[in-house]
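Reminder: ligand-aware prediction takes two inputs, not one.
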Amino acid sequence: MSLEIKARLFNHSAMNLDLHSHRLILAPYTPEDLDLSLEIFTDPAVVKYAGEVMSEPAVKRKMSNWTKRGGDGCIGIWTVSDRRTGEKYGSAALLPMPVEEDDTDYSLVIPGKMPKCDIEIGYFLKRSAWGFGYATEACRRLLQFAFQETPLKEVVATFHIENLASRNVLEKAGFTDRGTMRCYGKDGLNFRITRDEWSKLQST
Ligand SMILES: CC(C)(COP(=O)(O)OP(=O)(O)OC[C@H]1O[C@@H](n2cnc3c(N)ncnc32)[C@H](O)[C@@H]1OP(=O)(O)O)[C@@H](O)C(=O)NCCC(=O)NCCS
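Here is what comes back for the chain with coenzyme A:
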C-alpha cells in the first residue's frame, strides 16, 4: 500500500459504507438492528463501564439517533456481523466526542456536514462475542475507513480506567495514551491516533 494515503474525494452516494475485514462485515446501523441494540443495552455486563442498563422503550426511542449518519456517511454507527454467517456481534462507531455532555450529541450528526469537534471511536459487543478479537478487528477496519476514505486527520477514544479490554483493543489498533481530556462531562483518559501515525503503522 502506498505510504501517501490521501483521503479520496467522497460523497455519501459514491462511498461504500459496507466495510469488510477478514472475518467481519461492518454495515450502517438500521432500524432492523433493534434486536441487537436490545441485547446489548439491556445487559448489565455490557454497559458496566460505558452507559447504563436501558429499558426496552428507552432503547426503541434511541434508535432514531443511532441510525443517523453525518458528514456524508463518514460518521455514525455500524453493525458488526460475521461475514460468513451474518450473525450480529455488536456495533462500532465514529461519533462526535461529547465534552461537557454525558452522552453523544446527535444533533451534530448531520448529513453532508462533518462536525468540527473530535471524533471518537466506540464499540459494544454482545457478551457471547467477547474474547475472539472481533472488537480489535472492527476497530482496525474503522480506522482504515476513517483515514483512507474520510477527511479525518485524527480519531480519539476514551474508556473507564478499569476497562482493560477496551484499552487493549485501542492499543492493538495503534492508539496511544495522551494523558487526560475533558470528555463526557469529566476528566477522562485521552487516547488518540493520527492519520500519519496510522499510515506509518501500515508500513511496519
Ligand atoms: C471492550 C470489548 C468491545 C472488547 O471486545 P473483544 O472482541 O472481546 O476484544 P478483543 O477480543 O479484540 O480483545 C482485545 C484484547 O483485550 C484482551 N481482553 C479482552 N477482554 C479482556 C478483559 N476483560 N480484561 C483484560 N483483557 C481483555 C484480549 O485478550 C485481547 O488481547 P490479546 O489479543 O492480546 O489476547 C467488549 O469487551 C465489550 O463489548 N465490552 C462492553 C462494552 C464496552 O465496554 N465497550 C467499550 C466502551 S469504551
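The radius of gyration is 16 Å. The mean pLDDT is 93. We will return to this case in the review session.
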